[in-house]
Structures are given as C-alpha cells and as structure tokens.
Amino acid sequence: MNKKQIKSRVKAVEGRIKEVTGKLIGNEAMEKKGAAEKNAAKKKVLYEDLKEDARNLA
Q1: Which residues are CB-neighbours of 32 under 8 A, at least 6 positions away?
Q2: 14 CB contacts (<8 Å, ≥6 apart)?
C-alpha cells in the first residue's frame, strides 16, 4: 500500500466521521458534505488500488 492509498482511505474515514456528526447534531449540510467527501475518497481509493494492481501485473 502506497502513500496515496493510505491518504485516500484516511479522507474516506474523515468524510464518514463528518457525515455521522452531521446526522447526530441534525446538520444536514454537514451530513451531505461528509457523504460527498467520503464517496469522492472511495473512488480515489479504487483508482489507486487499480493502479497498484496494474503495476504488480507488469
């Protein structure tokens, strides 16, 4: 696992924390922003995993 993969996973967790915090305090904007950050980071995680898998095949 490289630095970009770790960084993307941390961002996904941060987004999830923000999403849950928004739900708990009733802040819909924070909840939506957290969900968006989480989803963007998950896509980045998938991309970085795919890149690493391609490198390992070569």
Answers
A1: 22
A2: 37, 41
Task: Give, in degrees to the nearest 5, the angle at Cα 9 between 7 and 12.
Answer: 110
Q: What is the pLDDT of residues 32-42, one digit of tens each?
A: 999 999 999 99
Residue 8: count of CB within 10 angstroms of its CB: 21
| Number of domains making up the chain | 1
**pTM for the whole structure:** 0.85
Token pair 């987004």 in the structure block, residue: 15
Residue numbers of the domain that contains 50: 3-57
